[in-house]
Amino acid sequence: MLRVELRDRIAVLTLDRPERLNAIGTGTVGRLRAALAEIHDDDRVRALVLTGAGRAFSAGADLGEIESFTRPGQFRDFVGRLTEAFAVLEEFPKPSVAAVHGFAFGGGLELALACDLRVAERGARLGLPEMKLGVLPGAGGTQRLPRLVPPSVAKQMILTGEPVDAARAHAIGLVNELAAPGEALRTAEALAGRLAAGAPLALAAGKRLVDRGLGMDLEAAVSYERETVSVLFCTEDRVEGLKAFRERRPGEFRGV
Question: What is the domain extent for residue 228?
Fold first, then answer.
């Protein structure tokens, strides 16, 4: 359901249900949380890449599992598990990149939205089609999407259920980089490699500053930034970074 491979400081997490277009069910969610717990304190891992096996990133939540529910509480619990897993990914201290090919729909796009950055192949499609089923996204889609794109664009995607192609997604800021067909994973790994070259403590702090700062007024957010960078100034990585700069070489950061 989910494969984990370590490739030169990058953990590649692959949704591995190609026969179901990588539909996300309870089993996949459990494995995702377990994988994140396993690599949380693994110093060999500096960044994550999430991708999908087969011809798509993910078709979304497992409709077969959902259709088996007989009580509203079962669906609420299912959505709760998805929401919690995606929140763990979003708050993970190591930066993450989604590598989208084919399509990322519904829960699949919500998973990609929980990543820090997104790469998509030209021709890929991204959308939240739940409206066409008479429901709405329930694992963060209605909240994370308008924090990335203009609210009117998010409303159009959510209320019509119509997807956007990768070029449009890139133009509105939903996707960070476009990749040639067949190159999403390679492009995402290259981007993750650039992230992994950074100082681990600064990477984690940078994520927190952006994510938490968006919920603060500007004065409080700037104060939070000042206190955070003051702590980073006392790290060995800061000393190494300045030394590497003066010696015109890449820094060798250890996360201390």
Answer: 200-246
